[in-house]
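#lab-general

N.A. 3:47 PM
ok so I finally got the sequence cleaned up, no stray characters, all 413 residues accounted for. can someone with queue access submit it? mine expired

B.Y. 3:52 PM
send it over

N.A. 3:53 PM
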Amino acid sequence: MKRKNYWFLFAILLLALTSLSQGQNLTPNKSSSEERKTMSWNPQPSSPQDTIDQPIRVVTHLNESDYKELLDINQSFISETGIQVDIRNIPDADAYHQLTAALEVGDGPDVMLVNSPWIRSLASSGYILPAESYQNSTNGSDVISPIIQLLEWNGYQWGIPLDMDPYVLVWQAHALQTLGISDIPQAGKGWKDLLAKQEGRKDKKLIAIPAGDAFAFAALMGIVGTNPVSPTDESLEYLSKLRMGIQFIEPGGTREAWTSLRNDDLVMMAMPASAARKETNTNGTLELRLPEQLYAENPFLLRGRSYAVSAQAQQPETAAEWIAYMTSNHSQQLWSAATGYLPALKEMYEEGHFQWIQPPIHLDQLLKPAEDKAADSLLQTEWEIFSKAAKRFLSGKMTEQEYREAMGGHPKE
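B.Y. 4:20 PM
back already:
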């Protein structure tokens, strides 16, 4: 009888131990969750040889034609170095969410090529490494200064810029000359004179911009000399008079707009730099200008892409070698010539050997050291409000005062 009791007690003890063992993982505490998260972000290879044999994993956010161009440059890197690189593209609109979801579970790439405004968010979330950790020099002084502002967070630079595709003003010199004007006005009285000349063009439009495109709206305001958030009374008056001369380009109507520009039915257009540069291949009389003041104050409008190395990267030094190759002078020249995007390196815009960009892009303010500014500009913070208000104002559905009230400010003195 006593022996039966022993066996009964032993069975109860064994059952209790089994239940305790199974219950440890049912409700993991925060510290164990963080530990697993850290481990997944920093996977350890089984051996050094395994790491060497693994290809660099790259994720990009590009359209199909740009992706093919990147693959061509990447193939040159593989041929020259023998280092294997696997590139996967995510062209979808929700690419940011797809990428961060993969990074969250430890399934992210070694390198990513993404929109530059994403970098600060990726850095603050712990998904990427500071550039100083894998490069001896980030060459910040060699890059257009406002772009670097987009890549900085917590005192460090977190990305390596590749390019930019800002909206530019495009015009044909002879179209201006027929109006008796030698150059596009910078601001002020010059626009007043141009608008007076436009009144004699009967039913012809002065400028074409993509319909509903807030980046185009901002560029137009910058070219006229208007601060989109706190415009002066004078600049808003010019824009009000300009509204009758605006042709909004609907989807599918871009080719027709270029034809109108070529035939002098239009005087100018606001288009992405890449589209304008590609058009110069068939129309060599085009000239371009960037609203530099606007872009210096609002770097996100430069619409650039940058490389970053994942915090999960098993070979950060090799990843850095690939990025250095892809952002070298030679590669940037190949990339810019094929895609039309503008390079991020300052020396590409300087007189001499590197001045190969056609038509020439003359930069001044964007090449100067950037002033210390807030992380996000006021325009970036109020972007959704601006997008709606600018669309209504430029289409004549909102008065000057209503636009100013929508932006929540008073006229800039």
